[in-house]
């Protein structure tokens, strides 16, 4: 493998580069798969930028796994995992649940607890 092959990927870009090299694909091929520009793939692989959350569903599908781990034993962790797997910003999930994006962040960080109505909505959403 080339010198820039990430044997132990640490960043999202490392994971993408490793999978791309393992599959013997060009950056433009991965860009087509993830539906971004080739420049995005280059910047991610060089760790000059990180993908926006909206691209994570396609990235996870390409990799075959999530490169980010979440503590899903807590409601906050489950919410965060749901958002990342579905490419939702705090604001977008907030709209879905009819709350402000900062409320979603507070639930994720467990500085606030959803009321009963929201807990019921979250239970449906997360199952």
The SS-based structural class is mainly alpha
CATH A-level architecture of the largest domain = Orthogonal Bundle
Measure the end-to-end span: 42 Å
Low-confidence stretches: none
Average pLDDT: 96
Number of domains: 2
| Separate helix tally | 8
What percentage of residues falls in helices of 4 or more residues? 55-70%
Percent of sequence in beta strands: under 5%
Instruction: Look up the CATH topology of the largest domain.
Output: 434 Repressor (Amino-terminal Domain)
**Tally of strands:** 0
Quaternary form: single chain
For this structure, what is the CATH class of the largest domain?
Mainly Alpha
User: What is the CATH superfamily label of the largest domain?
Assistant: lambda repressor-like DNA-binding domains
Judging from the principal axes of the Cα atoms, what is the shape? elongated
Question: What is the secondary structure topology, with strand pairs?
Answer:
Layout: H1 12-22, H2 27-34, H3 38-45, H4 56-63, H5 75-86, H6 90-97, H7 101-108, H8 116-126
What's the quick description here?
It contains 8 helices and no strands. It is mainly alpha-helical and 127 residues long.
For the structure shown, list the relevant keywords:
mainly alpha; 127 residues; 434 Repressor (Amino-terminal Domain); 8 helices; 2 domains; 0% strand
Q: What would you note in describing this structure?
A:
The chain has 127 residues and is mostly helical. The protein has two domains: 12-63, lambda repressor-like DNA-binding domains (434 Repressor (Amino-terminal Domain), Orthogonal Bundle), CATH 1.10.260.40; 75-126, lambda repressor-like DNA-binding domains (434 Repressor (Amino-terminal Domain), Orthogonal Bundle), CATH 1.10.260.40. Helix content is 58%, strand content 0%. The protein is built from eight helices and no strands. The protein is elongated. The N and C termini lie far apart (42 Å). The model has no long low-confidence stretch (mean pLDDT 96).
């Amino acid at each position: 493998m080339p010198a820039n092959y990430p044997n132990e990927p640490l960043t999202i870009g490392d994971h993408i580069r490793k999978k791309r090299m393992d599959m013997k694909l060009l950056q433009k091929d991965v860009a087509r798969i993830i539906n971004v520009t080739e420049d995005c793939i280059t910047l991610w692989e060089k760790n000059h930028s990180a993908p926006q959350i909206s691209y994570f569903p396609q990235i996870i599908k390409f990799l075959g796994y999530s490169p980010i781990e979440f503590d899903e034993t807590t409601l906050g962790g489950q919410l965060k995992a749901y958002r990342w797997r579905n490419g939702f910003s705090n604001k977008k999930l907030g709209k879905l649940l009819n709350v402000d994006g900062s409320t979603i962040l507070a639930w994720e960080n467990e500085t606030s607890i959803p009321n009963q109505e929201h807990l019921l909505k979250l239970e449906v959403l997360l199952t």
